[in-house]
Amino acid sequence: MLDLIQRVGKINGEKKLDNPVQWYQEKFGKEPSYDTLLDELTSSQAGRRDLLANYFEPREADIDEGRKIPQAAHRAIASLVKTGYIKIIITTNFDRLIETAVYDIGFHPYVIFHESGIRSCPPPAHIQHSCIIFKIHGDYLDTQLRNTPEELARYPDLINQYLDRIFDEFGLITCGWSGEYDCAIIERLKARRSDSPYPIYVSSRGKKKPAIQELLKIPNTIPVEISDADDFFEKLSENVTFLMEHNKEPLTDELLVIRVRKYLSDTKNQIKLWELLNTEVKSVQEKNNNEILRAISKTSFTVKDLMAHFETNIKNLEIICMNVAFFGDQSYSPFFRSIIEQLMTVQEKGWYNKLVSLQYYPALLIAYISGIILLKDDKFSQLSELLLNPICYDYNERKPSISIINTRTVFRDSAEKQIDYPNAENLYAPVSEYLYHRLKDPLSTFFSNENHYSETFDLFEYLLSLIYIDQIYPDLSKGRIWSPIGRYNWKRESYYNEKTPFFEQKVEQWLHQGENLSLFKEGFFQASPERLNQCHQGLLLLLKSSKEQWIRI
User: Fold this and answer.
1) Do 215 and 179 touch, CB atoms closer than 8 A?
2) Are strands 132-135 and 88-91 parallel, antiparallel or unpaired?
3) To 5 degrees, how large is the angle CA 493–CA 498–CA 503?
4) Which has the closest alpha carbon to 96: 116, 74, 76?
5) What is the spatial distance between Cα 518 and Cα 515, in angstroms, rounded to a whole number?
6) By CB neighbour count within 10 A (0-12 exposed, 13-18 middle, 19+ buried), where does 19 fall?
7) How many CB atoms neighbour CB 95 within 10 A?
8) Which of 33, 43, 49 is nearest to 138 (CA)?
9) Cα Rg of the chain (Å, integer)
10) Cβ pair 550, 495 in contact under 8 A
């Protein structure tokens, strides 16, 4: 438009306009518009065609710099044509960008740019491996263009009839269209059958033009806020691909990872991620409830059987949580509390059967697989939502989740000795050993090497022991304490190893950093280094006592 104003300026004796828009306003007393500028520069359709060709046909420099060629939106639309989801494209543009994008995928579209082309075009339902591109205002190489208000006010009857058929029989997505001058199209949309089964999606950004506001009053019309056309159509194409793959077969691990990371790349997708998580959690709960009912009704159902079923059911949720823990920021903290509390809402109550307590195993797995990643990067805000804030109800008694989500409570009545792990019956922390090896492979992506993983795993379990003491024993001066102990206490060959283990060194660092450490700011250990030190000293005494018994044995 600025270039067209410069051309109008030259006709009016101006050599170079520093502010073309201001000059036009002052000269003609109105705002410049695309249609009036063309009308002032040439009165013939052939003249308009030649003028427009300069803007639409890319030169070598344009191609090198990505101008006048199909952009991401055109490519995404073409991909939806290729998969058969888009059959008809109506465009008010004169350019050939969408045709080029469709040609590039190997399809040959039926292009209509004049009413005479409607009769020769096959019905949409008969089109295979192609699409219809209806250039309703013409093509820039054709002399019969529509681009002035008078030309856009009404269409020939044949075009109106064709539009009515399309709008009645197909859904519609509008994008990059203000509707400001296209009175004839608006009228056809208003005439659309009120019982049409397919909606109209009106995508827009910022303030909506009056024509679009009128369009939104049409029944079954849905507004969609977008940032730009490229982003909108790329996401639409990706989501359709995800759904298409999901409907063909179970969602693969790779596709699920891509989908979750795509959602995490833009905070606008938090709702989609929340919906994905909730759907997966509900699916896990339903499957697990069925498994536990089967288990307690069959005497032959073992601890190994139930664990295997739970691990299969929770596989997708593990993938989601790992990626949210690693790639998500503080805004995703509430996700963890919601997941844990939902998984701890179990069907069977009571401790009459050791299999019943295994209902909490999925919650324990999610706590470990998420918590280890979060602790690696000192994401204490998310850790607090995972370990501190979730609560559960045991016969209407409100309890902190840590009181149940620990290896000794979930695996009770010698259930830990019956897990599928070598020599489990003779180990002091068989569940801890099992979890270490069970999670090593899926978590390897997020750690530089196994030593890093091993240190973080031990630190996580040590932190769990400290949190248990803190939440279960308000007053540490009253008698002996107990806490679930992980593999960190027995994995060394000798109790008399003089080297201070990593997890003890880390706690000492936390204490040295003081109350400004984010660990305390997020509410761990009553936000007090002194309280952490009390729990730490109490746990060290417990570990020493347990190892002395081990040595005597």
Assistant:
1) yes
2) parallel
3) 80
4) 74
5) 8
6) exposed
7) 18
8) 49
9) 33
10) yes
Q: How far apart are CA 411 and CA 379, in angstroms?
A: 28
| Cα torsion through 285, 290, 296, 299, rounded to 10 | -130
411 touches 358 (CB < 8 A): yes
Averaged over successive runs of 10 residues, the pLDDT of the chain (553 residues) comes to 90 90 91 79 78 83 88 93 92 91 92 90 82 91 74 90 90 89 89 84 89 88 91 88 62 75 82 87 87 76 87 92 92 91 80 77 95 95 93 81 90 88 90 94 91 94 95 86 89 58 91 90 93 93 74 37
Contact partners, residue 14, CB within 8 Å, separation at least 6: 23
Distance of CA 352 to CAs 115, 296, 483, Å?
79, 10, 23
Quote the pLDDT of residue 145.
Answer: 75
CA dihedral of 222, 226, 231, 233, whole degrees rounded to 10: 20
- Contact assessment for residue 304 and residue 418, using Cβ atoms and an 8 Å cutoff: yes
What pLDDT does 448 receive? 87
Question: In terms of C-beta density within 10 A (0-12 exposed, 13-18 middle, 19 or more buried), how is residue 234 classed?
Answer: middle
Give pLDDT, residue 450. 92
Q: How many CB atoms lie within 10 A of CB 185?
A: 24
List, as one string, the DSSP characters of 40-68.
Answer: HH-SSHHHHHHHHHHHHS--HHHHHTT-S
**Residue position matching structure tokens 């963890």:** 336
Domains of the chain (ranges; CATH) run 2-63 (no CATH), 71-235 (3.40.50), 250-442 (no CATH), 447-553 (no CATH)
Residue position matching structure tokens 């079923």: 309
Please give the structure tokens belonging to residue 265. Answer: 């790349």
What span, in angstroms and rounded, lies between the C-alpha atoms of 186 and 190?
6
Q: What whole-number distance in Å separates Cα of residue 115 and Cα of residue 121? A: 10
> With contact defined as beta carbons under 8 Å apart, do 215 and 245 qualify?
no
* CA-wise closest residue to 511 among 479, 455, 466, 456: 466
How far, CA to CA in Å, does 83 sit from each of 86, 130, 171, 241? 8, 10, 17, 9
Contact 37, 137 (CB under 8 A): no
Residue 354 CA to residue 296 CA, distance in Å, equals: 9
Q: How does 156-165 read in b/e, with b if 16+ C-beta sit within 10 Å?
A: eeebbebbee
What secondary structure does DSSP assign to 98-148, as a single string?
HHHHHHHTT---EEE-STHHHHHSPPGGG--S--EEEETT--TTSS----S
Per DSSP, the residues of 292-349 read HHHHHT-TT--HHHHHHHHHHHTHHHHHHHHHHHHH--GGGHHHHHHHHHHHT--S--
Look at the block and give the residue holding tokens 């989609």. 272
Full-model pTM: 0.57
Q: Tell me the C-alpha distance between 375 and 381, whole Å.
A: 10
Q: Distance between CA atoms of 379 and 401, rounded to whole angstroms?
A: 19
